[in-house]
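As the next step, I selected for study a record pairing a protein sequence with its backbone structure tokens, which the following lines show:
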Amino acid sequence: MTLSPPANRSSSSATMWARATEIGRSPTLGAMGKGAATLADQAVASATNFITGVIIGRACSKDELGFYMLGFTIMLFANGLQQALILSPYTVFSARRKNDDLRLYTGSSLVFQAALCVLTALCLAIALAVLGLSGSERLYAILWALSAVMPLILLREFARQVSFARLRAGAALLLDCGVFAVQTGGLLLLAHNGALSASRAYWLNGAACGAVALIWLFWSRGEFAFSGSQIVPDLLQNWRMARWLFGSTIGRAGSSHMYPWILTAFHGVAATGVLAACTGIVYSANPFLIGLQNFLDPKFAHEFDKNGSDGLYRAIVRAVLVIAAVMGVFCLAMHLFGGSVLKIAYGEKYIGYSIVVTVLALSHLVYAVNAPITSSLMAIERTDVEFKSSLAGVVVMSTIGIWLVRVYGPLGVAFGLLSRSLVSLTFGWVVFQRQRHAGRIPMETTSDATMATQEIPDCGPTLRDESLL
């Protein structure tokens, strides 16, 4: 269905909107153009997170940056649940729907989104009430801000991923550019006036996300239709796919997102601020990695359908070699210059943590090399492996990970994340090789799920932008 503005709008506004949305859906762009728009969008989204962290790090104390990181882990967890329960299923199943059926499914997904927003706000309000009895005043302020703005943040991500699923990367890019402009400008203004804090950064983030998401909802209102009888069947369909992804999200929260909280418990919030700065430097590679992931998911599904397990294996090897080469150079650069970049970006109070940057870069290298393995397992419909891998990460975190953090602080977190990445890579590779050599990979791959992924970017939650800052 063509997205068009209301008739009573001015012709200039209609023309601007039509041209902007046409960027993401024009057939003349082709696959390369849409891929470039997807990569550009990810660069803008990552840059927004990175610049936010830099501004907070330079204008505020280490403690304030640490509190911001703690709040960001909550955002990541909520986004992971949204991705698993709503957005990943929508990306796959929307490709099978047409016309009114697609409008009804999109409407059902919006209902699910609204329910998740309400549930998230309720859980944060409960945490707020508990923390108000004996908790930190600044953490209380962050939870108060998140309980109010999280629905808007999640709504923006819903708009963004629905645009990707409808092959409108340009529309997603337009949304993220709007958030970048409002959020960065507001942060700079607050910092200039000496009024910036972690909680105010979240209020500003919510305002920016809410503004662009509500505009998107208004202009896209013709693409939604609602039927009470359709909601439950759509929910059950989503759950059949999402249950393993949901479990993986819980596992990831236990295996990675808990590290900042453990670090805070042992060494204080300032140490978490140091971790946030080091993480922000290392995750500057995420636009490349996530753009590549968005390409690998449909590519591997197509390769498996066309050439079977042997063709898929060759594609994995090629992808691993490319990622290892690029990330190897990146790790070397982080080892040589990471400390200097950290000082330039965040200020002199972060001098002396180059070794943390180096180990985090190695962890990111292993995690990135694992991305083709995870995409291949999705292609052969083994999404349960990511769930089991995340459980292995929980075991690492709850044993050696806690000890490393207690003894070595931020460096211990880096080594804990490296250990988790190595375990996940080993586990995924062993499972794939066993499936391949035992002949249990089905050679007929004409299932709807595989076909649906062949033309859709970003259909899996394997490598999300966790650029904390």
Remarks:
- Residues 13-453 form one domain.
